[in-house]
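Worked example 3 (structure in, sequence out).
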């Protein structure tokens, strides 16, 4: 009897040893599998990060965002971060690099090169990247989009506004974009973090029509339906100035190149020059008999072009403080205008879908051509003066050269 019990105990102990051994082997196998899984996860993460870096590098190359060499500098930027101190106003005298460039005259008649179905509703505004052929568009469909015009590809879409968007502008470094419209707020978009850096709310009691960055990138102007123009510090995120003189919508807004002055055009039929540091007007020009829709400086800053709802285009000499040209472009509303970079012509976009080249010296419409089925709502000229980009009420973005 005792021998049987001893035999059973030995058998149980033997089975226990075998189970313990199997358990140890299983644990060892489990550890090996866990190590392989961990190594695989690390490899996958490294691959994902490498792919993400390659995608980001390609996106920056296409969109004109800052190059990797600039990233460290821009990462230290306080734009949109709300620092305590206000940014000092820049010096008056700053070199204008545009004046050192040589430009070929723009042909009197341009031909269509590209057509992009950009939006399903009207495009209200557009902006050109300072270094690349990258165009940003703002639309009544409540979105903004960025287009690589070399390939006619959409490379970014932004959503966040509650209503139509009318104003859009690229930051001078290409690191940010600013938008606004009928929801009366201004959104500052940060390309580096792919997010909204800041939203300025209740900026205006009416829709905001125009936004413009200062050439330093530290300040931004807004203008809207209440007739007021506001200057914002993009580092402290505070309103620094409010400019009140216009008695109706401000539709035109642009800085004099590389200075602290800017020009505005209003539905009150006046064109005014302002000093952004003092909040005061420097000069006001009278002569338009209808709503002024756009105002632009020549690249040297001596001349201003303005256009109105009667189709009248005027050029003003700010040194002589006088009108030097007035041309009737026809029955259509002149929505937008811009000097071509030689200063010989003003390019005008009209409500009948035509673009008209106005020769300043002769004081006449040198040529006109049909661009859009709807109105031409905005236009910009390329950095080398060879191309005109137009945005229309038909939702199309077009390239002419």
């Amino acid at each position: 009897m005792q021998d049987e019990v001893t035999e059973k105990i030995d058998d149980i102990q033997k089975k226990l040893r075998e189970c313990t051994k199997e358990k140890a082997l299983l644990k060892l196998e489990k550890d090996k599998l866990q190590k392989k899984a961990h190594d695989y996860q690390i490899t996958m993460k490294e691959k994902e990060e490498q792919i993400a870096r390659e995608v980001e590098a390609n996106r920056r190359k296409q969109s004109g965002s800052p190059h990797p060499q600039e990233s460290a500098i821009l990462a230290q930027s306080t734009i949109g971060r709300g620092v305590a101190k206000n940014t000092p106003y820049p010096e008056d005298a700053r070199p204008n690099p545009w004046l050192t460039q040589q430009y070929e005259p723009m042909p009197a008649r341009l031909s269509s090169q590209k057509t992009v179905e950009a939006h399903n509703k009207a495009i209200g505004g557009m902006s050109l990247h300072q270094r690349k052929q990258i165009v940003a568009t703002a639309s009544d469909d409540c979105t903004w989009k960025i287009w690589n015009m070399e390939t006619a590809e959409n490379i970014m879409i932004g959503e966040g506004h509650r209503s139509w968007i009318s104003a859009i502008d690229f930051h001078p470094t290409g690191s940010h974009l600013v938008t606004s419209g009928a929801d009366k707020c201004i959104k500052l978009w940060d390309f580096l973090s792919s997010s909204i850096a800041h939203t300025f709310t209740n900026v205006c009691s009416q829709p905001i029509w125009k936004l413009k960055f200062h050439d330093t990138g530290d300040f931004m102007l807004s203008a809207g339906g209440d007739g007021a123009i506001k200057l914002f510090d993009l580092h402290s995120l505070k309103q620094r100035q409010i400019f009140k003189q216009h008695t109706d919508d401000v539709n035109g807004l642009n800085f004099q190149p590389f200075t602290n002055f800017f020009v505005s055009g209003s539905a009150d039929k006046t064109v005014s020059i302002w000093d952004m540091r003092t909040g005061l007007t420097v000069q006001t020009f009278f002569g338009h008999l209808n709503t002024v829709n756009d105002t632009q400086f020549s690249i040297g800053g001596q001349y201003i072009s303005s256009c109105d709802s009667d189709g009248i285009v005027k050029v003003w000499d700010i040194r002589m403080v006088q009108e030097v040209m007035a041309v009737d472009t026809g029955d259509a509303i002149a929505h937008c205008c811009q000097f071509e970079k030689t200063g010989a012509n003003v390019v005008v976009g009209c409500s009948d879908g035509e673009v008209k080249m106005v020769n300043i010296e002769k004081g006449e419409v040198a040529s006109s051509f049909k661009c859009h089925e709807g109105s031409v709502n905005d236009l910009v000229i390329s950095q080398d003066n060879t191309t005109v980009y137009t945005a229309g009420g038909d939702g199309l973005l077009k390239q002419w050269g």
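Notes: The longest helix spans residues 2-63. DSSP finds two helices and 28 strands in the chain.
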